[in-house]
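are you around this afternoon, could really use another pair of eyes. what follows is a protein written twice so to speak, once as letters and once as structure tokens for the fold. i want to understand how the tokens follow from the sequence so walk me through it. anything you notice is useful, everything is just below.
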Amino acid sequence: MSTYTAFKTSEKLETEGIIIDYGDGGKYIVARMGGSNKKFTKRISKLTKPHRKAIQADRMDEGLAEQLLLEAFIDTCLYDWENVTDVDGEPLEYTRENALTLLTDLPELWDDLRTSAQNASLFRDEVATADSGN
């Protein structure tokens, strides 16, 4: 395997998203947090701008930082979902508000989606091609 094969990501996958499939837990279309997804970088910069002094002084409230990251993720990385249900097992329509509620209520799901969106290896053409064959 060449160095380029091992590390080059797909700009298309990073910006258009990949499918994260949890089976009964639903399917989520997720773009990369960073990389070629410049919308994420711009959004997180805009959301954190009023807090730059606190960030530079390492005094930003962790809860606020987490909330801003979640909002930037939903606004620029989480594009849609399928087969996602609410607490009563009813189908849950993808909206920004529903995404905020779901990922706030289910921090393990938020953590897993965030980890996937930050994992550059998931945004390589050969990984996406191999996953689509399964």
About this structure: The mean pLDDT is 91. The CA atoms of residues 32 and 117 lie 5 Å apart.
